[in-house]
Specification:
Length: about 375
């Protein structure tokens, strides 16, 4: 495995043949990716404001939004750059890719002893009123990590009911908010309010802004740039016990904010995940945390600890069963293929074409 030098030094590159690819077929894969731009407009504020996720008033934007970038991406194998398209240093918002980054931060909290046991109720270590009700009291960290918490409440002006009954297959079209709650740990649901509740819990445990922790403990050790940002909501300022007023950050860009980052930094995070927490001989996160994070949830075989999985081949049939993904709305994907040593980042790619990109990249391998 080769680890890229720290930004801004360019990634180590090699010819496709040197990394086991047929150059012509890999070029076809890249051309296919570049030709299939997301159908989302460049005006993200207008897109969300017109009800991309839900109709008014639940779609009120609370965090910053700016126009998206052009399609771009990169393919690495064994840490070496083999192909790219577009501007890989163009910073754009990533939507739910941020959820997987929250998973990394949770792993750090476990390492630090801030979360002694992910199967214990959150209320034992987070005492802010959010887990006092009979519905919320049994919720564990594992439930929050696997989207099975069934947390009930309103956070930063958004009620959990906004995303109840959410169907990602018909995002923005299906009716939401009508489903009755189940017991914590018994129902899987993709719910941004509950992920944001996890983020706030992590802020409480670290006692400092999560972007600071992410920079110091994740991106800086792997040579990431300073070009990224992680924005919260205008409503998400909270007071810490030491008197500091800080902003809690969301696990996506559903209502604005979230992580804005470029493809090269995303590929670094993907390479860290591919190597299960090891970077150039330095242990950043325990290998055991990645084993847990990529184990299918009992209620959803396609989901781990805020990472999407391919355990049954249903998500991307051409990919290996060990493949996993950080995925965000609008066409943002980081794909890790451990058995092949591949990390591929796609930015603003049509989600309907992502399977075709995966198929073509793997089809270009000669070994």
């Amino acid at each position: 495995m080769t680890f890229p030098p720290a930004h801004p030094t360019p990634w180590t590159e090699a010819t496709p043949a040197a990394l086991g690819f047929d150059a012509g077929r890999l070029a076809e894969a890249v051309a296919f990716a570049a030709a299939h731009e997301t159908p989302w407009p460049h005006d993200l504020a207008g897109h969300i404001g017109r009800g991309a996720f839900e109709p008014p008033p639940d779609n009120e934007v609370l965090g910053p939004l700016w126009p998206r970038g052009a399609p771009g991406g990169m393919v690495t194998r064994h840490g070496v750059l083999v192909a790219r398209w577009g501007d890989t240093r163009e910073v754009s918002q990533t939507f739910s890719v941020a959820k997987s980054y929250l998973s990394l931060l949770t792993g750090l909290a476990v390492v630090d002893g801030l979360i002694p046991d992910i199967d214990r109720p959150v209320r034992e270590t987070v005492d802010d009123g959010g887990f006092d009700s009979a519905q919320n009291a049994p919720i564990t960290w594992r439930y929050l990590l696997t989207n099975t918490s069934e947390w009930e409440g309103t956070l930063f002006g958004k009620a959990d009911s906004i995303d109840r009954g959410r169907n990602l297959g018909v995002e923005g079209q299906g009716k939401k908010g009508q489903r009755s709650l189940a017991a914590p740990g018994t129902h899987w649901e993709y719910n941004d309010v509950r992920v944001n509740r996890l983020s706030l819990c992590l802020l409480r445990r670290f006692g400092r802004p999560l972007p600071e922790v992410f920079r110091e403990r994740i991106l800086a050790p792997i040579g990431g740039s300073a070009d990224w940002r992680w924005d919260g909501y205008r409503t998400s300022w909270v007071d810490l016990p030491d008197g500091c007023r800080v902003q809690s950050v969301p696990g996506g860009t559903h209502w604005g904010g979230g992580i804005s980052i470029h493809a090269e930094d995303q590929a670094r995070v993907g390479l860290l995940a591919l190597n299960r927490g090891m970077w150039a001989g330095r242990r950043i996160l325990p290998e055991s945390w990645f084993a847990l994070s990529t184990t299918p949830c009992a209620l959803n075989p396609h989901y781990g600890f805020l990472w999407w999985l391919n355990s049954d081949g249903a998500r991307y049939p051409a990919a290996g069963r060990d493949a996993f993904f950080a995925s965000g709305a609008g066409g943002n994907l980081t794909w890790m293929e451990p058995s092949k040593g591949i990390v591929c980042v796609m930015r603003w790619t049509n989600p309907a074409a992502m399977g075709g990109v995966v198929e073509r990249v793997l089809g270009a391998l000669d070994d």
